[in-house]
Amino acid sequence: MDYDETKTALSALDVAGLCQKLGLVHQFVLDVAKDPSVYYEHFERPKKKGGVRKISASTGRLKRIQRQILDGLLATVVMPPYVHGCVKGRSVATNAAVHVGHDVVINIDLKDFFGTVNSARIQDIFQKYFGMEEASAVIFANLCTYQNHLPQGAPTSPTLANLAALELDERILEMLKGVYNYTRYVDDITISGAKDLVSLLPQIYQAVEGCGFVCNLDKTRILRQSMRQSVTGIVVNKKLNPSKRFIRKVRQNLYYCIRFGLNEHCESLDIKPHNFIREMQGRIGYIRMTQENLADNFANLLKDILPMSEISDEEKNLLLLRTIIDNERMVAFMYEESHRQAAPTEIYVDENDDTIFVKAFQFAPEPGWVEYRLAYMSELTMQFNRLA
Q1: What is the pTM of this model?
Q2: Host H or E run for residue 182
Q3: What distance in Å separates the CA atoms of residue 181 and residue 104, rounded to the nearest whole number?
Q4: What is the pLDDT of residues 233-265, one digit of tens each?
Q5: Are the CB atoms for 144 and 150 separated by under 8 Å?
């Protein structure tokens, strides 16, 4: 449903009518709206490059209401194709794909993205995009904000932040005039194209400030072809990871197993068959993140070598890790017979031996930045808020 259709459907509804449409009890909503702040819990998680991110997570009755607002109202808006973060069917991979093979890739970070979106802007969004009357918009904005801004940890915040940033997206796109490529993944703006793109940076900074956001200048990255160009954790110099070499090696290993047998091939590599299978499953899972059809073909070949389920545990682990990274969650797992708890930030392949690693901030047993070997991770469980 587009904006105009949504507005037409809701324009005649007051708070009671909106509650009925969303499957909420009117008085229940009004009671929670009197003081939503009592329904939040607070904790911190480390940022990738130092410092901490303060999380205010909604709980109980408020979280249920926010979920209904998200599913029954906010989710009806179709986001433009250049918005990739927290949009169903889009991911860090679709975001990065736009920027493959360009002379320059520029990454711009919006500082305190949720914190710069205040209650007045949320009220305006409910009125502008959903045609709410002012009284209704005030109540719904109150339900979706904490201390006059969007809280990190409420289910409604990512979509509302995306809506708040659409004006900025449009301003920058007008400036780029269709000559350069543009995407936004939550608070990460990426622009790519020819070398002269860099000259537009001052104008882009002005557009960001003009729309009420703040650029984190320390995190702006200008990446040229001679450098490792990374967009939301994926290398885009020539094509999305995995590389041709990586894929060729997977295909070659499968071919040798089929031709000479699993045990003989593993003996030539000096690796135990079960370790070899785990490594191959992990690599196929890595391919699946960007090339699902190719991953399916490789998985079917591997099934001929050793019977297994449609998607192996290693592939499931990779898909789960990608979800955890995309949604900034924590994970509990076993690693080398030790229980670990961590916040993963990146999945990458070692260029020397194609081993897959997961970079994360480890909370337990000892805090600090760690690189885990994917094949040794097991019993993964997503943790939604604080550590268990």
Answers
A1: 0.67
A2: strand 181-185
A3: 10
A4: 777 887 666 777 888 999 999 988 888 888 888
A5: yes
